[in-house]
Amino acid sequence: MILTLTANAALDRVIFIEEFVPATTMRAPRFIECAGGKGFDTSVALRGLGQSTTAIGFVAGYYGNLLVNVLTNYGIDVDPIWLPGETRLANVLVETARARHSHVMIGALPVTAADVETMLERFRTHLPAATWVAAAGSLPPGMPPTFYRTVTEIAHAAGKPILIDATAAPLREALSARPDVVKLNQDEFVDTFGLTGGELPAIVDAARRMRHDRDLPALALTCGREGVIIVTAEGVVQAQAPVQRAINAAGAGDAASAAIVWRRALGDAWAESARWAAAVSAASVVTEGTAEVRFADVEHLLPDVRVFEWE
After folding, report:
1. Domain of 130, in residue numbers
2. Average pLDDT over residues 126-140
3. Rounded to 5 degrees, what are φ and ψ at 34?
4. Among residues of the chain, what percentage have pLDDT more than 70?
5. 3-state secondary structure of 136
6. pLDDT score of 197
7. In Å, what is the CA distance from 236 to each residue of 160, 186, 191, 208, 295?
8. Among the four 108, 163, 275, 308, which has the fewest Cβ within 10 Å?
9. Kindly report the CA angle at 65 between 62 and 71, in degrees rounded to 5?
10. Nearest to 77 by CA among 116, 58, 51, 59
11. pLDDT confidence of residue 297
12. Is the pTM of this model over 0.90?
């Protein structure tokens, strides 16, 4: 079982329009409701890959009920922590003519110190059965920026490997605990560490330095069309899947996280883990649901994924 942790969940309402045109009336022929929040989305992708996963997260109100139902329908073992208030709503605007998406976030679900302790207690309860942990996403109001560091320390004390997918202060705070995988997308990496160069070679050089200086086991970057890059003490591997015309690209990075923890749990080397991550991430963009993956799509893409090492 792979355990996921979502502190800042949302219900994704994916609205399909042809193109966003400001100051006009746009008509959406359809919408669907999906899971939002990086940890929950990682669990969604894991289920598409046929893997067992337990998902812990804060939920509340009407949207929280809808979200738990969505997760349950995927076959995810959900352990919701119910709070007063209302779960965030993420309106995901998918422009079919341009193959792009935008988020309009509504609301916030603040937490208390007692709520945080409840989440950590649930985490400790499920941890013995986990092969890997993925803790991911932004933190809600009231949650300390040290949360991911604490979670990493608890996982390591139990002998469990953990992937942290976060940004800004919560990620920087976690680095001292040395998560087994630190995962961001390319833009998040630049912003979180105040980099000036946005070209891929400069980003890879910066990632190498940071991994070395912080003594991190692995740093994974999702880079859109450039695929997935994983930096370890052994070197740098990059995996690129054939570019797909996106239907809904939301959650593609979370699908990559799912593939990484799954393949590492199976004992794959980093190059093979990167290959699967690229294929799974690419497969996720051709489904309508956020982070949804069809295993047949992954199998179709996998032989055409290019994997190579950086000098």
Report:
1. 2-22+29-309
2. 98
3. -135, 175
4. 100
5. strand
6. 66
7. 24, 15, 21, 8, 27
8. 308
9. 145
10. 51
11. 97
12. yes
As a whole number, mean pLDDT of residues 206-211 equals: 94
The 10s digit of each residue's pLDDT in 221-274 is 999 999 999 999 999 999 999 999 988 888 999 999 999 999 999 999 999 999
Among 98, 109, 110, 135, smallest CA distance to 5 is for 135
Rounded Cα distance between 186 and 209, Å, is 15
DSSP characters over 107-118: ------HHHHHH
The backbone region for 74, taken as left when phi is positive above 0, alpha when psi lies in -120 to 50, beta otherwise, is: alpha
| Residue 19 in tokens | 């193109």
Look up residue 236 and give its two tokens: 């740098």
pLDDT at 11: 96
Beta strands in 9-168 (DSSP E): 10-17, 30-36, 53-59, 77-82, 88-95, 100-106, 132-136, 162-165
Is residue 80 within 8 A of residue 64, CB to CB? The reply is: yes
Tell me the CATH number at 64: 3.40.1190.20
Q: What pLDDT does 171 receive?
A: 97
Could you give the CA distance from residue 203 to residue 193 in angstroms, rounded to a whole number? 11
Residues recorded for the chain: 311
